Amino acid sequence: MPSLPSLGGLRGRVPRRATPAPIPVPLSAYVVDCAVYVDGERLPGRWTHTAAVEEVRRREAGFVWIGLHEPDAEQIEGVAETFGLHELAVEDAVHAHQRPKLERYDNTLFMVLKTVRYVAHESPDTANEIVETGELMVFLGQDFVVTVRHGNHSGLSLVRRQLECDQERLRMGPSAVLWAISDHVVDNYLDVTEHIEQDIDETETRVFAPRSTVSAEQIYLLKREVLELRRAVQPLATPLRKLADGDTPLVPAEVRSYFRDVDDHLTTVSERVGSFDELLTTLVDATLAKITLQQNTDMRKITAWAAIISVPTMVAGIYGMNFENMPELHWKYGYPLAIGVILGICLVLYRIFRKNQWL
Question: What is its membrane topology (predicted)?
Fold first, then answer.
């Protein structure tokens, strides 16, 4: 008969718990919307990505637009297989943290855009964050558009509704969707720059106020937020020019003119952001100069008062040495005379410092 283990051997051991298996999340949890568009109109009904692409290819007309929000690698795998997306582009779409760019993989375009949102606050002096950024990836093919969003402020429901009300542009195909998304993102850039311009104007007014309470650290914070906006805006210029100049076969000629308009708007935003950076640098220099000037003014006042106070200190120090033979030591009016001399010299010094604007 086998012996049982002793209780002493089991004492102090913690029983192991089995690691629970991750609960699979269906793809529908990440799908914001999936629609089929034929001849500029949205077909009724709810579609899965497989049924939608099968319908389009059966008709040999129209395209599919599916929107995803922060999917993981497992969930986007089925979409990538259905639409034939390149694995490198899929990896970038899942992990995000990409610079704005435009890449071509066989018959598919992959575009990354940075989305921005202005964070409302009471004052730019007390705000910890002014610009919030997100990312938007777009896969463009002959008969499909796949959008992948990262961030809660980069919704495309408004863009979809506006396009569905404009059948002429929807008839242009998937490239019209890419244009509408780019235009929407750049328009948000314009709105954010207008709000930041107001913050900079307010900061500038406070910097040059008689009693300024703006510190250089606060201006550096605003400058950092402008730099974050700059990182989203400037790299987008090259992809938009490629789309506008006809270097991409998936963008027809009638859509390229729309991308030129978006590129013009982006140029306006870039110029504004550049001017913001220069102005904030000037404000930092002005703030540091005011601090230096204030320190010099305070030092002059301290030096002037120290000179005035040194007169009674010197006289008191001399007469406090208690030598027997000192001038006017036993004279009846010696003490009032010493006080008068001290006050007279202090008054003369005060008027001199006051005239020289040291006091």
Answer: Multi-pass membrane protein
Q: What is the pLDDT of residues 296-342, one digit of tens each?
A: 777 888 888 888 888 888 877 777 777 666 666 667 777 787 788 88
Half-sphere exposure of 204 toward its Cβ, with a 13 Å CA cutoff?
12
Distance CA 89, CA 66 (A): 16
Residue 158 structure tokens: 């408004």
Residue 8 carries which side chain, given as an amino acid letter? G
d(C-alpha 115, C-alpha 138), whole Å: 13
Q: How many CB atoms lie within 10 A of CB 125?
A: 17
Q: In terms of Cα–Cα distance, which of 135, 142, 118 is closest to 196?
A: 118
- What is residue 214's three-state secondary structure? coil
Residue found by looking up tokens 């230096």 in the block: 292
pLDDT, tens digit (0-9, with 9 covering 90-100), for 4-56 = 444 444 444 444 554 444 444 445 556 888 999 999 899 998 888 899 999 99
Nearest to 175 by CA among 66, 256, 280, 96: 256
Quick check: 215 and 291 in contact, CB under 8 A?
no
- Residue 71 CB: number of other CB atoms within 10 A? 22
Structural domains in the chain, CATH included, are: 27-291 (3.30.460.20), 295-355 (1.20.58)
Whole-number Å distance between alpha carbons of 184 and 157: 11
Q: What contacts 195, CB < 8 A, 6 or more positions away?
A: 118
DSSP-assigned beta bridge partners for residue 113:
136
Q: Which two tokens stand for residue 129?
A: 């964050």
Which are the contacts of 318, defined by CB distance < 8 A and separation ≥ 6?
A: none
What are the tokens at 72? 């993981």
Secondary structure of residue 28 in the 3-state scheme: helix
Please indicate, yes or no, whether the overall pTM of this predicted structure exceeds 0.85: no
d(CA 291, CA 212): 10
> Strand pairing of 108-118 and 31-38?
unpaired
Q: Which residues contact 98 (CB under 8 A, 6 or more apart)?
A: 92, 112, 135, 137
Q: H or E element: which one contains 117? A: strand 108-118
Query: Mind listing the pLDDT tens digit for each residue in 92-146?
Result: 988 888 889 999 988 899 999 999 998 887 777 677 788 888 999 999 999 999 9
